[in-house]
Amino acid sequence: MNVLEVEWLSKQRWLAKIAAVFAEHAVTIASDPQQVLALQRTWAEMEIDVPLVVVDSPYREFTRPALEYIRSLKPGPDHTVTVIIPEFVVEHWWENILHNQNALRLKAALLSVRWVVVISIPFHVGEADDDDEFPGNTLD
Fold first, then answer.
1. Tell me: the pLDDT tens digits for 38-94?
2. Span 2-124: which CATH code?
């Protein structure tokens, strides 16, 4: 079972492509109902064919509700759960202090869960919104 953790969604379609290929369902940890509605609208507009699960976290906690949800999946003995976490790649080293803290905490907490595999997907902050334009092959 593959779970895509959706903490943040931009106008880009990269997340939709990841979800369509890898995820059986996507999960967002939500503390703001307005942001949830906006995410659900965007999810529908992007026609992502992956169910979006909303885990409520009224106190803005992230790691505990995410970990509880993942542990609730309880796969069979021959199965694993793959958690795909988008992570910001920032221009300056010091910006890491501001970003990815939830992702790092969740990855650390999931280390103790034997049946979980974590995959980090880099998201380059400040790049163009058009994700259909990939740089040419630099090996040519």
1. 888 888 888 878 888 899 987 888 889 999 999 998 888 888 888 888 777 878 878
2. 3.40.50
Q: For the chain, give every domain's residue range.
A: 2-124
In which region does residue 74 sit, left (phi positive, over 0), alpha (psi from -120 to 50) or beta (all else)?
left
Residue 87 carries which side chain, given as an amino acid letter?
E
Among 20, 17, 23, which Cα is nearest to 84's?
23
pTM, rounded to two decimals: 0.71
Closest CA to 124 of 88, 99, 92: 88
Structure tokens at 68: 């509880």
The chain-wide mean pLDDT, for the chain, equals: 76
Q: Residue 83 and residue 113: Cα distance in Å, rounded?
A: 11
Helices 101-110/63-72 angle, 10° precision: 40
